[in-house]
């Protein structure tokens, strides 16, 4: 038997996860049909099992581990999770500039590598790389598939999450982050997208989709959709199954985060071959077991520590994890290391969904102007501090007032500010980089800081070099809850010729 670790979320502050023992086992490949032997007979029963691979954990993730899982992982589905709150708002800006864009910028890069593999490996692709323009993304993938003679692929786009045009009707709703009414941002709003669930993904698969491309769905929905379809479950009735499927999606959504990536901390939580991480593969069985593994001959680690950290990711109330599909209950989860090297997660449950959907509202929030300069050699920190003082007094002299100003000595206090000296001894440095950043309503005011930093070249102090400056528009996110019935997601199709 494996070692069992029950996650007591209520007491996690008392648990040092790094103290848990890591046990390394060999890996055994599993087929999409798992064989179990009844303990009371010699009868071997074939039980349906669905295998889902992580393909990406964020918009810019690497592709090689996903390709290996398609080639060697005997997977049924691969999910590319590529959206964050700001990502889709940025995609909306791309679409505004070009109506044929607005999808993930690495869509073509990924698909030109994945599509040829589908000839020998009939893996279905589920992804939110459609971002702000799932239809254009589906059209692009169809054209690419034709180049590889994959003209029989059925490609579905899930649309309807965008509510930008309707968001003014919700102006009196309180912004979740600030409590202020949404109408205070009315003239700054760039986009508004509701988090929808997996129902339309299931529908597309039931209608024969090989590739499903969505916009803003909840991250776990990329796994929930296939699992609900494969096991014939009802979105309104099978809430415990939805809870388990949501846990499955949550384990996969961040890719290598569960196989040691973000987990790694040398000497504290060591991870072998971090440069060669394998992405996780999850098996979900007919009797609702959740089993995780990674391919042999890949780097990383998969054990109760790495799985526990991912389970805790973004969870505030473990008994009530709100999603568009279900309120998932993580409070009774346990993690068990099996003798074949896999990890099993047990105890997930679910409750009826709330009837509301979270909407991420992207809005223009001014500009950030930034300038940087390096100082080296003896007394470099003192010269950098003098340069910062010069900049501050120059801004007063120029009568420039900003909503926020930040000054960092990178390598000295850029993470912890002045408080760091209470914890860490003053470092002896041979080089330091000064960074000054400001937030401004107008672009021209943000540009001032770069000019002032550059002027330090000849106006002192001595020895400055490597000036860089930039101005970026700030796209911020506000969240509101709107009634589920006000959002109408649908499925549309791109079929090969």
Keyword list:
disordered N terminus, 497 residues, single chain, Alpha-Beta Plaits, alpha+beta, 24% helix, 20 strands, twelve-stranded mixed β-sheet, five-stranded antiparallel β-sheet, 10 helices, 2 domains
Show the helix and strand layout.
Blueprint: E1 3-6, E2 33-37, E3 44-56, H1 64-72, E4 77-80, H2 85-97, H3 107-114, E5 124-127, H4 134-147, E6 154-159, E7 189-194, H5 199-206, E8 211-214, H6 221-230, H7 239-252, E9 281-285, E10 290-293, H8 304-312, E11 321-322, E12 327-329, E13 334-337, E14 343-346, E15 349-351, E16 356-376, H9 380-397, E17 404-410, E18 431-440, H10 443-459, E19 464-483, E20 490-495
Parallel strand pairs: 3-4, 4-5, 5-8, 6-8
Antiparallel strand pairs: 1-13, 2-3, 3-9, 6-20, 7-16, 9-10, 10-14, 11-12, 12-15, 13-14, 16-18, 16-19, 17-18
Helix pairs in contact: 3-4, 5-6, 6-7, 9-10
């Amino acid at each position: 038997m494996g070692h069992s670790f029950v996650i007591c979320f209520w007491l996690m502050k008392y648990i040092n996860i790094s103290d848990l023992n890591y046990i390394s086992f060999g890996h055994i490949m599993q087929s999409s049909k798992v064989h179990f032997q009844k303990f009371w007979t010699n009868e071997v029963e074939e039980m349906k099992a669905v295998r889902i691979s992580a393909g990406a954990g964020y918009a810019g993730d690497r592709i090689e581990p996903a390709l290996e899982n398609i080639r060697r992982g005997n997977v049924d589905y691969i999910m590319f999770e590529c959206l964050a709150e700001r990502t889709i708002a940025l995609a909306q800006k791309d679409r505004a500039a070009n109506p044929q864009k607005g999808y993930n910028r690495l869509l073509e890069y990924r698909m030109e590598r994945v599509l040829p593999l589908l000839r020998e490996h009939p893996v279905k692709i589920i992804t939110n790389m459609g971002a702000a323009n799932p239809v254009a993304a589906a059209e692009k993938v169809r054209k690419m598939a034709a180049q590889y003679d994959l003209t029989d692929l059925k490609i579905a786009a899930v649309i309807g999450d965008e509510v930008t045009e309707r968001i003014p009707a919700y102006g009196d709703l309180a912004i979740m982050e600030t409590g202020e009414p949404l109408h205070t941002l009315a003239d700054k709003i760039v986009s508004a997208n509701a988090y929808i669930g997996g129902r339309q993904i299931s529908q597309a698969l039931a209608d024969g989709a090989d590739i499903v491309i969505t916009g803003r769905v909840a991250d776990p929905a990329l796994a929930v959709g296939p699992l609900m379809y494969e096991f014939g479950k009802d979105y309104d009735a099978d809430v415990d199954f939805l809870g388990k499927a949501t846990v499955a999606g949550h384990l996969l959504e961040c890719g290598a985060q569960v196989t040691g990536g973000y987990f790694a901390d040398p000497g504290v939580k060591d991870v072998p071959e971090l440069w060669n991480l394998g992405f996780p593969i999850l098996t979900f069985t007919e009797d609702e077991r959740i089993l995780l593994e990674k391919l042999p001959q890949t780097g990383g680690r998969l054990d109760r520590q790495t799985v526990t950290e991912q389970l805790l990711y973004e969870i505030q109330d473990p008994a009530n994890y709100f999603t568009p599909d279900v309120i998932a209950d993580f409070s009774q989860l346990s993690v068990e290391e099996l003798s074949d090297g896999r990890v099993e997660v047990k105890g997930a449950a679910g409750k009826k969904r709330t009837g509301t959907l979270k909407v991420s509202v992207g809005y223009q929030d001014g500009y950030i102007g930034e300038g940087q300069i390096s100082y080296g050699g003896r007394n470099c920190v003192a010269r950098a501090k003098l340069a910062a003082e010069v900049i501050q007094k120059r801004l007063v002299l120029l009568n420039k007032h900003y909503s926020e100003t930040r000054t960092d000595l990178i390598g000295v206090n850029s993470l912890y500010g002045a408080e760091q000296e209470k914890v860490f001894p003053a470092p002896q440095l041979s080089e330091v980089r000064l960074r000054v950043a400001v937030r401004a309503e107008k672009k021209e005011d943000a540009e001032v800081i770069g000019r002032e930093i550059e002027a330090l070249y000849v106006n002192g102090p001595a020895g400055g070099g490597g000036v860089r400056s930039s101005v970026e528009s700030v796209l911020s996110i506000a969240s509101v809850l709107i009634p589920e019935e006000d959002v109408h997601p649908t499925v549309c199709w791109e079929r090969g010729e």
